[in-house]
Design goal:
With 764 residues, the protein is of the alpha/beta class. It has 21 helices and 26 strands. The chain has three domains: 6-53 and 86-118 and 208-371, TIM Barrel (Alpha-Beta Barrel), CATH 3.20.20; 397-601, Glycoside hydrolase family 3 C-terminal domain (Rossmann fold); 647-761, Immunoglobulins (Immunoglobulin-like). Bound molecules: 1-deoxynojirimycin.
Length: 764
């Protein structure tokens, strides 16, 4: 048969299967039909074609230009034409995607369409706040909407698969990728994981949604000393109670793909971990999508000291359950020989190919491989106003008011002399954050532009000092200005004459993200010096922070009256910040990650263990768990965030103090807005399990609710405690509950709560 007739046979067999009447009472007629389609396709594929489905290449030549003749690009091009590629990454734009898809569909023997993966992490061209910022909104609808927007815009550019969400729980602000996750809490992180998966994937039958990918499986954020890619050693207890739940939540939300990770976990590289990929993910959780390796992570098992060479690495990875090889070339080069030598069973190849093909069917690519390739739609969609509105909305919700002494904020909208200082105040690239590979430089609204909308004040901008030495790409510490203070004098002069000074300081967007770990969590470069110099002449300072990780800024927390955490907020950054500064938006964000006083406190997180020596027994005692030169407490706690309203909590009541199995406890609390400003408050519910078969954290988030209150309004908020909320991975190595005493806490921050007690009684 020539390739055309095989394609015809394939299409016919697929049709026959889909027209077959589903058997009554079968578990899922739809799934069975889909499985049959996949099986019928698999049955006509050669071993090499199946292995081809497991191979993913990075975009490799000027796609609409002449075909590459030599080198790596020519190899990739030939592999593509020979049906040895299942997916591409980093190809975008309908023209390019169409050109490549056409080769796969028209020039390969079976015409199997490709998946096009891309890092649509926080928006595509219209950029949303970094995920850590979005997590600060605690607003699951806004977070889902932001993922939807990213998906729709990327889909319009031909992309059908995002490598997001990153659901790694992170406790170490030195690690540059904390910007890409939802912070330190497992419960919040799990809710956000599900919201983002739903936002990206939505209804996959449309051309507005794309495949999501839960990554990095697993433990990546627990890199020793916060150094990216470093060794990870965590106990089973931490793995199951802290790290894995957001991944499980992603599976429950229907995520179609997983990405494994670069790190080793307790001595085994995650890419070669059967425990993670085969036992936990595919067996225990019944995940029926596929796992892609991280970039080159299969061959990275060689320097890890776990594989002898690329062939050995391919053998380990496929056996461990890594289904697709991203840019290691290991599968395409060695799997066929490994099968022929009897080292790898063909069943493993079939299983991996089956998973990948199934996802392609689910995406509708066999019905229409060019589903995402419509140039008119691309033109009408990319950058549309609706996207700007959505990213502005989530940007405002992501801002956290850390401090506001003497109600310095919001600023009066007229009659004031306002000085705006800091290189970041005019930066239109840095607010785009770290993962903005599809966005154009200089497309964010700067703080200056945002503030210029408020025309009835006299606004004067002066830089004060450069943050970087002219660098906008791959910024790292050697590109930071640490010496040039020549602009200070002018800034001091302007500040002296101002009623209020707004200083925009922090990290460049590209100082965070992959490979950008830091040992210093202070303000980079000469910014701290600039802040202190301005403070000497004008104490009315509003510090607006732009950053991708918690910072250690004890001097500012002590001295500066108002501090606004504005992260890297994306395309609409300056508008969001200005609306908050001028009171047109009342902030409601709460920190999803603890801010330390000092980098040496890291890892620092609210749900720590109590230890055997939690407090000082007598005055001046030495032998308790503490530092002799720093407090144990954070600078700003998880869950902290102020508002222009003043919220007061009282009357915490439990409907019963005994929880029986199958029963529940209603927890009610009274929340009053004791101010003349309408606002929203994220009411947080925490629980402590006093005694456990393994020690339990001092507090764990178990629920939250966003409550809107009019001036002076009071509402009663109710949470329901059920047995399920008390379960954890116990000393029996399983998820279960244990009877005993518990505490419940409610408040507007993990460190400001009111509390009550209850007992959980187990009858079986
Ligand atoms: C490496 C990163 O770790 C991963 O998160 C990303 O999706 C891939 N590169 C592809 O760009």
């Amino acid at each position: 048969m020539d390739f055309k007739s095989i394609k015809y046979y394939l299409i016919a067999s697929v049709l026959v299967v889909s027209c077959a009447t589903p058997k009554k009472g079968s578990f899922s007629a739809k799934t069975k039909t889909l499985d049959q389609k996949v099986d019928s396709l698999l049955s006509i594929m050669t071993l090499d074609e199946k292995i081809g489905q497991l191979n993913q290449y990075n975009g490799f030549w000027e796609i609409t230009g002449p075909a590459p003749k030599d080198g790596q690009a020519a190899k990739k091009y030939n592999d593509l034409k020979n049906g040895l590629v299942g997916s591409m990454l980093n190809v975008k734009g309908v023209k390019d995607v169409y050109a490549i898809q056409k080769i796969a569909v028209e020039q390969t023997r079976l015409g199997i369409p490709l998946l096009f993966g891309f890092d649509v992490i926080h928006g595509h061209k219209t950029i949303s706040p970094i995920p850590l910022a979005e997590a600060a909104s605690w607003d699951l609808d806004a977070i889902k909407k932001s993922a939807q927007v990213g998906a729709e815009e990327a889909a319009a550019e031909g992309i059908n698969w995002t490598f997001a969400p990153m659901v790694d729980i992170s406790r170490d602000a030195r690690w540059g990728r904390v910007m890409e996750g939802a912070g330190e809490d497992t419960y919040l992180g799990s809710k956000i994981a599900a919201a983002r998966v739903n936002g990206f994937q939505g209804d996959l039958s449309t051309n507005k949604n794309i495949l999501a990918c839960a990554k990095h499986f697993a433990g990546y954020a627990f890199a020793e000393a916060g150094r990216d890619y470093n060794t990870v050693m965590v106990s089973d207890e931490v793995l199951h109670n802290v790290i894995l739940p957001p991944f499980k939540a992603s599976v429950d939300a229907g995520v179609k793909t997983f990405m494994n990770s670069f790190n080793e976990l307790n001595g085994v590289p995650a890419t070669g971990s059967k425990l993670l990929q085969r036992d936990i993910l595919k067996k225990n959780w019944n995940f029926d999508g596929f796992v892609v390796s991280d970039w080159g992570s299969i061959i990275e098992m060689i320097p890890h000291g776990y594989a002898k060479n690329s062939k050995h690495a391919a053998e380990i990875a496929i056996q461990a359950g890594s289904d697709m090889d991203m840019e290691s070339y290991a599968y395409v080069e060695h799997l066929s020989a490994l099968v022929k030598e009897g080292k790898v069973s063909e069943n493993l190849i079939n299983d991996a190919a089956r998973r990948i093909l199934k996802v392609k069917f689910e995406l509708g690519l066999f019905d229409n491989p060019y589903k995402y390739c419509d140039e008119a739609h691309e033109k009408a969609t990319v950058g549309k106003q609706e996207f700007h509105d959505a990213v502005l909305d989530v940007a405002k919700k992501s801002i956290v008011l850390l401090k506001n002494e003497n109600n310095l904020l919001p600023l009066a909208q007229s009659g004031k002399k306002v000085a705006l200082i800091g290189a970041l105040a005019t930066d239109k690239t840095s607010p785009l954050g770290s993962w903005r590979i599809a966005a154009q430089d200089n497309t964010a609204v700067s703080v200056l532009e945002g503030m210029q909308q408020y025309k009835n004040n006299q606004l004067t901008y002066v830089k004060g000092a450069d943050l970087t030495k002219g660098r906008t790409q791959f910024v790292w510490e050697t590109h930071i200005n640490t010496t040039d203070t020549s602009g200070f004098a002018e800034a001091i002069d302007v500040a002296k004459k101002a009623d209020v000074v707004v200083m925009v300081l922090g990290e460049h967007g590209l100082q965070t993200g992959e490979g950008r770990s830091r040992t210093d969590l202070g303000l980079p470069g000469v910014q701290q010096e600039l802040l202190e110099a301005i403070y000497k002449v004008n104490k009315n300072i509003v510090l607006v922070l732009n950053n991708g990780r918690p910072l250690a800024i004890p001097w500012a927390a002590e001295n500066i009256p108002a501090i606004v955490e504005a992260w890297h907020l994306g395309t609409e950054s300056g508008n969001a910040i200005a609306q908050v500064l001028y009171g047109d938006y009342n902030p409601s964000g709460k920190l999803p990650m603890t801010f330390p006083r000092n980098v040496a406190q890291v890892p620092i997180y609210y749900n720590y263990k109590n230890t055997g020596r939690p407090t000082m027994n007598e005055p001046e005692s030495v032998f308790w768990s503490h530092y002799s030169d720093e407090k144990n407490t954070p600078l700003f706690a998880f869950g902290h965030g102020l508002s222009y309203s003043k919220f007061e909590y009282s009357d915490l009541k439990l409907s019963t103090t005994t929880l029986a199995q199958g029963g529940n406890i209603n927890v009610t609390v009274s929340l009053k807005n004791n101010s003349a400003v309408a606002g929203k408050e994220v009411v947080q519910l925490y629980i402590r399990d006093i005694i456990g078969s393994t020690t339990r954290p001092v507090k764990e988030l178990k629920g939250f609710e966003m409550v809107a209150l009019q001036p002076n309004e009071t509402k009663t908020i109710t949470f329901t405690i059920t047995e399920e909320m008390l379960a954890f991975y116990t000393a029996n190595n399983k998820w279960e509950t244990e009877a005993g005493d518990f505490k419940v806490f409610v408040g507007g921050s993990s460190d400001k709560t009111i509390e009550a007690n209850f007992e959980f009684i187990k009858t079986n």
